[in-house]
Amino acid sequence: MLIREVRSRNQALVDGLLDVWERSVRATHAFLSDSEVRRIRGYVPQAIKAVEHLVVAESDREKPVAFMGVQGGRLEMLFVSPEERGRGIGTQLLQYGIERLDVTELTVNEQNPQAVGFYEHMGFKTYKRSDHDEEGGPYPLLYMRLDNSSTRAS
Known about the structure:
Blueprint: E1 2-6, H1 11-28, H2 34-41, H3 44-50, E2 53-60, E3 63-71, E4 74-80, H4 89-101, E5 105-109, H5 113-121, E6 124-130, E7 141-146
Parallel strand pairs: 4-5
Antiparallel strand pairs: 1-2, 2-3, 3-4, 5-7, 6-7
């Protein structure tokens, strides 16, 4: 598995990451309707292009299987393709973010308990909750910070 920070974000890469995003969301975000996934999908390419640090995990140079975006020490996105879930790629990405990009905060959908559990396992603790997402949708968010007093998983 190759993990690398990507500076150049050409259309082929963005399309590949958009595919990873959609398959990941459909596997883990059961609370979103099909129309909501399609609506949100329209915003994802711009988010991928605009995020400060884009880190991609590839099975080979052509095939992204997971990615994360980090902005100012905040994890903005982390998505793993369904067939790669449970293999440690998310852990590797997040550890890369913590160690190299100073990730200390993130926001996660409360309705995605597997993600919440993963971030807790990685040493993040909830410090705030909202009843709605940033667009006012009925999707509660948890705001989490890295708890430096706990030992992170290796």
